[in-house]
Amino acid sequence: MNQTIALGPGTYSVRQQLFARFFAAVLIDLTVINLFAEYWAYVIVKSFTTSLLTALLLQALFGVTIQIERKVASFFLRRGGRGAFTKAMVSVWMVAFGVKVAALHILDLVFGERLLFVGPYSGTFAFLVVVVAMLLAERLVRRIFLSLG
Q1: Helix/strand/coil for 120
Q2: pLDDT tens digits, 65-94
């Protein structure tokens, strides 16, 4: 399955488009992480390499999260019945939150003292603020990109 879509002067395969999205998201996340590390005492990153690997790992985890969320939502929506949509949304929210907490622990295991989120709730608050900022920055860049064409 190597579909192509015309975008400007050339055509790009679906795989190329996915790579471009992943690459852009990693660069956005890298920027967000480093801005927080520079301007907010609750985020401590020991090196650029650590922040780059963090951005890559988080994008991989976000990709897995999206797949899990879709499966959970489709499970409840396929079953139908009373409150199916509400059950699907609550379940997706629980999965999303749970994965974020798991991601914080994975980052701690992988990077240890080289990447620290400190402050309220053992750094969970700082981590969630950074993740929300990443998602908002990604959405903003996507909106700007779509508005250009």
Answers
A1: helix
A2: 888 889 988 888 888 878 888 888 898 888
Sign of torsion over alpha carbons 101, 107, 113, 114: negative
HSE-up of 22 (CA within 13 Å, CB side)? 15
pTM of the model: 0.80
6 pLDDT tier (thresholds 50, 70, 90): low
Residues linked to residue 117 through DSSP beta bridges, in sequence order: 43
Inter-residue contact 29 to 36 (CB < 8 Å): no
- Under 8 Å between Cβ of 124 and 101: yes
Instruction: Provide the token pair at 149.
Output: 């064409």
The DSSP 8-state label assigned to residue 119 in this structure reads S
What is the chain's alpha carbon radius of gyration, rounded to the nearest angstrom?
Answer: 18
User: What are φ and ψ of residue 41, in 5° steps?
Assistant: -65, -15
CB of 12 closer than 8 Å to CB of 23: no
Interior angle at CA 89, CA 106 and CA 142, nearest 5: 70
CB atoms near residue 80 (< 10 Å) = 8
